[in-house]
Each structure stands twice: as C-alpha cells, then as structure tokens.
Amino acid sequence: MTAQVDAMLFDLDTQAAAETEGLGAAIGASPWVAVLLLVGNGLLAPIAEERVWRGIVQTELVDTWGVAPGIAVTAVLFALKHVVVDGSVARLTTLLALGLVFGLVRHRWGTASSTVTHVATNTIASASIIAVSLYGPV
Fold first, then answer.
1. pLDDT in tens, 87-137
2. DSSP state of 53
3. The pTM is what?
4. Domain tally for the chain?
5. Positive or negative CA dihedral for 96, 99, 103, 109?
C-alpha cells in the first residue's frame, strides 16, 4: 500500500521504467549483477542495518526515551538514512512503514527476528526487481 502511495506522490512510473530497463540490460550483460543484488541488498545490507539501527540505536533510544518514542525516532532516522544515502525520497512512506515494522518486531521478538524480517523483505523486493527488469511487469 505505501509503495502505491509513493508512486502516486512522486510520479514513480517514469522513473521506475527507466531504472528497470537499465537493470535489465545490466543483468542481461552479466547474470552476476542479479546475484550481487540478491546477496548485497537481500542479505548483507539488512544484517548490517539491523545490527546498527535496531540493535544499537533503537536499544539506546528505548532505554532513554521509552518504547514508543524510541521505535518512532529509530524508524524516522532509518528512513532518512535511505533518503540521504540512497537518494530514495520517493520511497519515504514505505521506508517509514518498514522502519516501524522492523522496530516493533525487534522490540517484541529481538534483533534476530527483525533481521530475518528485514532479510526476507529485501530478498523478495530484490527478486521482484530482477524479475520485472528481465521479464517486464505482470
């Protein structure tokens, strides 16, 4: 749902089409691009992000400010990091929603659970991006 809101707010259809074409060409030229995307974005990045954002930042903020503010501020910082580093302002609502979900999962079941959730989310998203770039939208 948030991805659809982002698409409407930020006119992502044009941008997404251009990115999909470029990725499809890169994967067509070298299948290793797909493997690197799945390993890097699907596995390594979420593990590192969960260790830092939920394992360190959220722990400190929850201990200092309480559960709701600690999770909320961590989610905002997580989303802003992606906006600044990845240039992904168009995914702001999606990133905020995911930051809250990962934060709630971490608070309830621990960092290992939020890491598994984040890895699953990123792997499915990366595989979907690869599939669309190779075969077009369904």
1. 878 889 999 999 999 999 999 999 999 999 999 999 998 898 888 887 877
2. I
3. 0.82
4. 1
5. positive
